[in-house]
Amino acid sequence: MDSLTAIEVDITVELGSATMPIHHLLRLGRGAVIELDTTETDPMRIYANKTLVARGEIRVEDGRLSVEVTEKHVRTR
Length: 77
What we know:
cell membrane, mainly beta, 4 strands, 38% strand, 4-stranded antiparallel β-sheet
């Protein structure tokens, strides 16, 4: 088990995405709002090393934000 503690995994949680031309991106200022392709009720996507592994929901407890895994993604080959 000790050898597993040395393995690094990059975890990414994606709430949604947006596509825009670079010139729009460069014009964004502080406080700008970017409309995403999801709603607040859609599950977030959870990636490990850029591979989708699960979906989840945002939780707020005692002022702390967390992600609760609600569905594991089964990868088929």
